[in-house]
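User: Reviewer 2 asked us to show a designed sequence for the structure in our supplementary figure. I'm pasting the C-alpha cells here. Could you produce the per-position amino acids so we can include them in the response letter?
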C-alpha cells in the first residue's frame, strides 16, 4: 500500500512543536549555556579518560544499584583541566547524538551559579531532544500556567520521568554538569544531586556526568558512586601537560623570534614540575610571557618567584605577574578595581561602571585589564564584561598568599556603600522620561533604548545588588557607622520610591522585598554599639532603621501584590494575609489614603503633600478597579505641581509627568 503524503498534517505538527517549545521557553526560563568546540582539550590529550567515559555511556545499568551506576563523577584540584574535559565530553556525545543537555556552573555568573536554574534548564534541553518527554512537560505546564523555576519542586523532574512509558531512540542520553562546586551551597547541591540520582534510578537510559572540585559535601554525596575519576591520579596527565606546554611555548617562540626549541629542556622540565599537573599554570604563564619584551628572562624570573608545586606554585605565579604591575601603579586605586571585579560576581561589569564604582579613571581600568590579560579577561558571553580568567585567581586575591591581600568582607562593604551613594546621586523622578503613565512596560516600544540611555550601568547594578553587598560586611563599628549613614541618606528622601520605579522598569521588582528583608535582618543582628555622643546614638540606632525599613517593606509588599492590572486578582489572592493587612481590602468601599502616600511618609520627606486617594470597587468580574491617586513631591526645577501615580504592569506605582 502506497503511503499518502499530507503536507497539511506536517504543517500542523510543525505548528504544535513550535507552540510547545514557546511554552517551555516561557515558563521554564532555561539558562543559555552550552559547550564550546574551542574550549575542548587539545587534540591527542586526555584520551584515556575520554575513552573510559565513552565506553561507560552506552552500557545499560541493571540491578539494585542502578541509581549510583548512572552517575559518573570527575574531580580534581583547581586548574587541572576539568572544564576543558567537560567540553570534550560534550562534543563526543553530540557526535553520537547522545547529549541530552549541559549546564556549566560559574561562580561569577548570577544565572549559572543559581541552583534553581539547573533542573529547569536540563528539563528544557531534554524536552527538545526527546519528543515524548516534551509532550509530558508541555501538558503539565498547560495545567499549571503560573509555574516558574522558583515555584517548581525539585522532584517535578522525577515525576516527569516516571510518566514516560518508552525509551528514546538513542537508548542512552546524557546530562553533563561542569564545575558543580561553583553552584549553590551544601544543601542545594545535595538536593539537586539527589533528584538527578533518583531520575537515573527510574530511567536506565539516562546518565549524568558531573565535574567538580573534591569539596567535602560533594565527596559525601558521591560516597556510594562506583564511577568516579580523580584527574590528579591520571597517569597520562604529565605527558598531556608536556604536549600542551610545548605547543603553547611554540607560539611564544614564534612571536618573539626565538628558536622553535625554546625553552631548553632543563628550563622546560622546571615548568612542568612547578605546574604539577595544572593546565591553568601553563595557560597563565604563556599569556604573561606573550606580553613581555624579553620572554626568556621573564620565564626565569617567574619560575624563581613561583617556587613550590601545585597551588603554591600557581599562587606564586600570580604574585610574580602582579609584582610587575605593582611597581608602576597606584596600589590603592588598583586594589579598589580588583575589589569591584571579585565582589561584583553577580554580573560582569565593563570598564566604565567598574571605574565609577571603584572611583578611579576609566583609562586606568582599561590599561590594567590590558596589562593583566593573563589574569583578567573580557568575557564574550557578557559583551565584554571584566572577570578573572579562573576562579583560582579570585581565590588568590583574598588568600594569605597574596602580598596585597584584600579582605573580602571589607570589599563587599565598600561596594555596598558605593552602591547606596550611586543610587542617591543618580535616582530621580521619571528617570526614563516617559510621556504617558498609562502604558504597560510591554507597550513601550523603545523601553530598552530608554533604559540604556537613562539608567547607567552602575545604577542598574547598584539597584539590584546594594543590599547583598551591604549585608556581607564585617561586623565592626567603623563600617557599621558608615553604612548606616548611607542608609539614613537613602531612606530620608524619595530615593526608595525612585528605586522601586527603576526595578519596575527593569522588570526586576520581585527582588525588592527580599532586598529589604535582607537589610532588616542585617540590622537586627547588629552586635555591640559604642556611640560617642547622644546625637550619634540617636542617629545610629539600629532599631530605628529597622522599623523604618519594615514599614517601607510593608507598603512595598502591598503594592507588589495589589497593583498589577495585567494579572486580575482572584478570590484566593484576596484572602492572603498580606492583602488583608492592606487598608484598601475590599470590605471597605470608602476612600483611603494612598499606599504611595504611606511610602512617601516613611521616606521622611518634609516637603510636598498627598491628597485625594484611590477608590477600589468591584467591576462585576471579580476584579478590582483602582482610581488615580494624586501625589505632589518636593519642588524641583524639573517637576510640575500636578503629578500622577498610576498602577503599572510590573506591580508598582510609576511616577510620571
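Assistant: Here is a per-position design you can include in the supplement:
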Amino acid at each position: 500500500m502506497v503511503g499518502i503524503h499530507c503536507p497539511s498534517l506536517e504543517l500542523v505538527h510543525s505548528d504544535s512543536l513550535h507552540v510547545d517549545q514557546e511554552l517551555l521557553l516561557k515558563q521554564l526560563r532555561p539558562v543559555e549555556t552550552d559547550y564550546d568546540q574551542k574550549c575542548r582539550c587539545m587534540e591527542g590529550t586526555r584520551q584515556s579518560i575520554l575513552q573510559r567515559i565513552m565506553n561507560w555511556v552506552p552500557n545499560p545499568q541493571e540491578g539494585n544499584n542502578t541509581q549510583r551506576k548512572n552517575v559518573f563523577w570527575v574531580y580534581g584540584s583547581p586548574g587541572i583541566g576539568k572544564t576543558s574535559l567537560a567540553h570534550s565530553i560534550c562534543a563526543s556525545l553530540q557526535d553520537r547524538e547522545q547529549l541530552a543537555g549541559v549546564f556549566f556552573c560559574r561562580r561569577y555568573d548570577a544565572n549559572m551559579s543559581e541552583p534553581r536554574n539547573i533542573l529547569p534548564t536540563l528539563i528544557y534541553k531534554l524536552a527538545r531532544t526527546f519528543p515524548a518527554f516534551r509532550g509530558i512537560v508541555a501538558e503539565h505546564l498547560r495545567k499549571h500556567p503560573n509555574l516558574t523555576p522558583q515555584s517548581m519542586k525539585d522532584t517535578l523532574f522525577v515525576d516527569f520521568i516516571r510518566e514516560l512509558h518508552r525509551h528514546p531512540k538513542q537508548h542512552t542520553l546524557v546530562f553533563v554538569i561542569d564545575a558543580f562546586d561553583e553552584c549553590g551551597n551544601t544543601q542545594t547541591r545535595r538536593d539537586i544531586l539527589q533528584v538527578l540520582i533518583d531520575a537515573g534510578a527510574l530511567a536506565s537510559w539516562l546518565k549524568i556526568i558531573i565535574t567538580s572540585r573534591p569539596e567535602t559535601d560533594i565527596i559525601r554525596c558521591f560516597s556510594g558512586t562506583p564511577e568516579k575519576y580523580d584527574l590528579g591520579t591520571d597517569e597520562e596527565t604529565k605527558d598531556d601537560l608536556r604536549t600542551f606546554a610545548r605547543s603553547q611555548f611554540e607560539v611564544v617562540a614564534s612571536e618573539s623570534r626565538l628558536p622553535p626549541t625554546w625553552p631548553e629542556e632543563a628550563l622546560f622540565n622546571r615548568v612542568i614540575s612547578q605546574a604539577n599537573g595544572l593546565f591553568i599554570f601553563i595557560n597563565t604563564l604563556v599569556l604573561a610571557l606573550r606580553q613581555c619584551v624579553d620572554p626568556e628572562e621573564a620565564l626565569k624570573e617567574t619560575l624563581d618567584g613561583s617556587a613550590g608545586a601545585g597551588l603554591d606554585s600557581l599562587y606564586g605565579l600570580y604574585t610574580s605577574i602582579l609584582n610587575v604591575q605593582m611597581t608602576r601603579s597606584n596600589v590603592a586605586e588598583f586594589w579598589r578595581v580588583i575589589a569591584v571585579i571579585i565582589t561584583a560576581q553577580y554580573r560582569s561589569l565593563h570598564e566604565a561602571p567598574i571605574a565609577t564604582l571603584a572611583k578611579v579613571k576609566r583609562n586606568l581600568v582599561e590599561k590594567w585589564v590590558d596589562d593583566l590579560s593573563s589574569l583578567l579577561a573580557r568575557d564574550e558571553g557578557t559583551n565584554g564584561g571584566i572577570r578573572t580568567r579562573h576562579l583560582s585567581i579570585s581565590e588568590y586575591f583574598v588568600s594569605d598568599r597574596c602580598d596585597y591581600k584584600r579582605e573580602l568582607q571589607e570589599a563587599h562593604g565598600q561596594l555596598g556603600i558605593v552602591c547606596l551613594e550611586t543610587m542617591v546621586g543618580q535616582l530621580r523622578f521619571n528617570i526614563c522620561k516617559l510621556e504617558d503613565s498609562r502604558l504597560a512596560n510591554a507597550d513601550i516600544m523603545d523601553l530598552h533604548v530608554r533604559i540604556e540611555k537613562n539608567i547607567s550601568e552602575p545604577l542598574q547594578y547598584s539597584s539590584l545588588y546594594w543590599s547583598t553587598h551591604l549585608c556581607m560586611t564585617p561586623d565592626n563599628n567603623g563600617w557599621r557607622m558608615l553604612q548606616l549613614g548611607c542608609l539614613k541618606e537613602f531612606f530620608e528622601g524619595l530615593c526608595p520610591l525612585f528605586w522601586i520605579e527603576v526595578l519596575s522598569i527593569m522588570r526586576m521588582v520581585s527582588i525588592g522585598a527580599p532586598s529589604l528583608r535582607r537589610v532588616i535582618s542585617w540590622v537586627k543582628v547588629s552586635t555591640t554599639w559604642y556611640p560617642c555622643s547622644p546625637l550619634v546614638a540617636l542617629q545610629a540606632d539600629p532599631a530605628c532603621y529597622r522599623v523604618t525599613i519594615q514599614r517601607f517593606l510593608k507598603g512595598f509588599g502591598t503594592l507588589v501584590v495589589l497593583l498589577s492590572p495585567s494579572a486580575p486578582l482572584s478570590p484566593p489572592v484576596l484572602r492572603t494575609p498580606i492583602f488583608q493587612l492592606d487598608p484598601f481590602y475590599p470590605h471597605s468601599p470608602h476612600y483611603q489614603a494612598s499606599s504611595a502616600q504611606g511610602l512617601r511618609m516613611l521616606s521622611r520627606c518634609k516637603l510636598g503633600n498627598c491628597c485625594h486617594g484611590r477608590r477600589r470597587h468591584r467591576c462585576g468580574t471579580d476584579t478590582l478597579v483602582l482610581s488615580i491617586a494624586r501625589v505632589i513631591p518636593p519642588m524641583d526645577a524639573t517637576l510640575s505641581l500636578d503629578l500622577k501615580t498610576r498602577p503599572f504592569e510590573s506591580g508598582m506605582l510609576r511616577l510620571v509627568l
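For the response letter, you might also mention the following. The chain is about 50% helix and 10% strand. The first helix runs from residue 7 to 28.
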